[in-house]
């Protein structure tokens, strides 16, 4: 995450309540917004385990 309370943290490691906040306020424009929206959908639907294989790379 490039800014805010969770600056320096991987987007995949952001807490669900923070992703939910972005979803309610609107995601920022550009790639960061697309990544946050994707992570929100992944987290919201209980699919966070799909990220694990990518971490091992």
Automatic annotation (TrEMBL):
Top-rank taxon: Bacteria
Pfam families: QSregVF_b (PF12843)
InterPro entries: QSregVF_b (IPR024530)
Protein name per its UniProtKB record: Cytoplasmic protein
Originating organism: Paraburkholderia rhynchosiae
């Amino acid at each position: 995450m490039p800014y805010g309370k969770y600056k320096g943290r991987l987007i995949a490691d952001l807490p669900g309540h923070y992703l939910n906040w972005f979803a309610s306020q609107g995601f920022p424009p550009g790639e960061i917004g697309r990544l946050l929206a994707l992570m929100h959908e992944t987290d919201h639907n209980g699919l966070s385990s799909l990220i694990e294989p990518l971490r091992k790379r």
